[in-house]
Specification:
Layout: E1 4-5, H1 8-19, H2 26-34, E2 40-46, E3 52-61, E4 64-72, H3 81-95, E5 100-103, H4 110-118
Parallel strand pairs: 4-5
Antiparallel strand pairs: 1-2, 2-3, 3-4
Helix pairs in contact: 1-2
Length: 133
């Protein structure tokens, strides 16, 4: 089935659960999402028992559709949820006027890289983060 549209506050709570994030960061992530002024689409997928299994959102800015927050429950990997989710976000973006889409993925995430290649994405550039300890 299709994912269902979600309010950002509900979406970020599920994303934290799926990604096993530190829940003390939840208020920060809620504020960050609330500051997005461009059109957004927040999607959640559930299994047949209504348990959250996948999440993702898209932001449309000047014809560019940014796809973010793709997460799948570790118990539901390789069941097609991420494919359906990204496709639904792409369709939403196209209906809203997106001319192209982009996303970021960690180079070690081979499963995600394979999915995004299958969906027609290709690498444009690499980047890295600096951390201070």
């Amino acid at each position: 089935g299709d994912g269902h549209y979600s309010a950002p506050n509900d979406w970020v709570r599920v994303w934290h659960h799926l990604r096993k994030r530190d829940h003390s960061l939840l208020p920060i992530h809620r504020v960050t999402l609330a500051k997005i002024t461009d059109p957004c689409c927040f999607l959640l997928f559930q299994d047949y028992l209504s348990r959250p299994v996948a999440s993702g959102f898209a932001v449309l800015h000047n014809g560019a559709l940014g796809i973010h927050g793709i997460a799948t429950s570790k118990h539901n990997l390789r069941e097609g949820y991420a494919t359906k989710l990204v496709n639904q976000l792409l369709h939403w973006g196209k209906r809203k006027g997106a001319r192209y889409a982009y996303l970021q993925v960690e180079s070690a995430n081979v499963t995600a890289l394979n999915l995004y290649t299958k969906l027609g994405f290709n690498e444009v550039y690499k980047y890295w983060y600096r951390a201070r300890y």
